[in-house]
Design brief:
single chain; 455 residues; alpha/beta; Aspartate Aminotransferase, domain 1; Aspartate Aminotransferase, domain 2; 2 domains; seven-stranded mixed beta sheet; four-stranded mixed beta sheet; Aminotrans_3_PPA_site; EC 2.6.1.22; (S)-3-amino-2-methylpropionate transaminase; transferase
């Protein structure tokens, strides 16, 4: 297929990016990872141009931050207008209407037929931290349950809640106390001989036993669950599991917190992924695509829970900044006017069909899964052993990058390729990106040097 959007002028990274990489190595610590070794010059929609003039299709979306795409014109206008009026007063110093407008809209959109309130912060980790604070304040309990393979951030509390040791936790202890990890379903890696139904029943039994063997439910303030695990490998739980956890939370007075940092704002075909499971959370954490690239996060929840914290006990200098609030309000307008929930479902269908086609050609694709436009494939050495193949994923991501497609990996074993393209991507750009994905598989598995590296 002739490339209409991707343009490869130099090797990637090109000479200008190579020069900047040397400066980056000198002045920026290696602990901050970089998936792509090029430097961006400009980006619009789903296309990114680097400083060497190479144009790439973005299937990474700044790790799920750009559901409405790069520099959406309406977001740009809103930010320019806001910056010309005032940039910052600190909501805890002098308030502004956009904060109230955003809180009102999100409370109306969030699932649950009850009064809600919302508070805003800066990052996803901050949102989760504050959800924990609010839950502990309201319940007067200390315990927090998260799940195996879950990711919630890099601060002390959220790093403790996160399941993957390397690179997120190794050498950074001691960790926060009273945090417990419960089992989370992973149907693809279920024990041999168990049907999906039997396996899901087993995981529910394990969760119930967990509250007997590991920690007393009366001491737990909140259960924090990603409706679809992001960093964990885009693992979608069974609806019955999520509903049973909710029932157990209600039974014991435990708050159910849906971590929607990566799953929210139309990524899965609904404003909040938890809506797919017929569950009403007590608290919802949000960030990433909420601000279209402007830092902002939040917690939405039952009014009586959110109001448990006293004056000055939550918030921060930049929390819910004017620029972030204006960006988030515009994102909500775009999702509605451009029907991005429906668009996410269509993108997911197209991408999943393509990945299933690839699975028919390549035995290394062990599983294709996802929800809406949050879809992925798990790469293994072979389908019989299901041995994770992290090395192959690295080669595929590299081959894709050389051909003009930005990809991300994920998963506890680092062997999952995840797709997080902007929901505003055109059908033609989506098709071209998926074609490059196929070419990258051919280059790695068929050792086909003739597979083009851009045209």
């Amino acid at each position: 297929m002739e490339k209409k959007f991707v343009k490869i002028q130099t090797q990637i990274p090109g000479p200008k990016s190579e020069e900047m990489l040397e400066r980056r190595k000198k002045y920026v610590p290696k602990g901050i990872s970089n998936n792509c070794h090029s430097f961006v010059k400009k980006a619009h929609g789903s296309l990114v141009e680097d400083v060497d003039g190479n144009i790439l299709i973005d299937f990474a979306g700044a790790i799920g931050t750009l559901n409405v795409g790069h520099t959406h014109p309406r977001v740009v206008r809103a930010l320019q207008e806001q910056a010309s009026q005032f940039i910052h007063t600190g909501f805890n110093v002098m308030m502004y209407e956009s904060y109230i407008n955003l809180a009102e809209r999100l409370c109306q959109l969030a699932p649950g037929d009850f009064n809600k309130q919302a508070a805003f912060f800066n990052s996803g980790a901050e949102a989760v931290e504050n959800a924990v604070k609010i839950a502990r304040k309201y319940t007067k309990r200390q315990g927090i349950i998260s799940f195996t393979r879950g990711f919630h951030g890099r601060t002390l509390m959220t790093m403790t809640m996160t399941s993957k040791v390397k690179p997120y936790k190794f050498g950074f202890g001691p960790f926060a106390p009273e945090v417990y990890k419960a089992p989370y379903p992973y149907v693809y890696r279920r024990p041999e001989g168990l049907s999906e139904q039997q396996y899901n029943e087993m995981i529910i039994d394990q969760f119930e036993t967990f509250l007997l063997a590991e920690v007393a439910p009366e001491t737990i303030a909140a259960v924090v669950m990603e409706p679809v695990q992001g960093e964990g490998g885009f693992i979608v739980p069974d609806k019955v599991f999520v509903q049973r956890v909710r029932e157990i939370c209600t039974q014991y007075g435990i708050l159910f917190v849906a971590d929607e940092i990566q799953t929210g704002f139309a990524r899965t075909g609904k404003y909040f992924a938890i809506e797919h499971f017929g569950v009403e959370p007590d608290l919802i954490t949000i960030s990433k695509s909420m601000g279209a690239g402007v830092p902002i996060s939040g917690v939405i929840g039952r009014a009586e829970i959110m109001d448990a914290a006293d004056v000055g006990e939550i918030g921060g200098t930049y929390s819910g900044s004017p620029l972030g609030c204006r960006a988030a309000l515009t994102v909500l307008d775009i999702i509605e006017s451009e029907n991005l929930n429906e668009r996410a479902q269509k993108i997911g269908t197209i991408a999943t069909e393509k990945m299933k086609e690839l699975a028919e050609r390549f035995d290394s694709i062990g599983d294709v899964r996802g929800l809406g436009a949050m879809c992925a494939m798990e790469i293994v050495k072979d389908r019989q052993s299901k041995t994770p193949d992290k090395e192959a994923v690295g080669k595929i991501v590299k081959a894709a990058g050389e051909r003009g497609l930005m990809l991300l990996s994920a998963g506890l074993y680092g062997n999952v390729i995840r797709l997080l393209m902007p929901l505003t991507i055109t059908d033609e750009q989506l098709e071209e990106g998926l074609q490059i994905l196929e070419e990258s598989f051919e280059a790695v598995y068929l050792n086909n040097s003739a597979v083009p590296v851009g045209r």
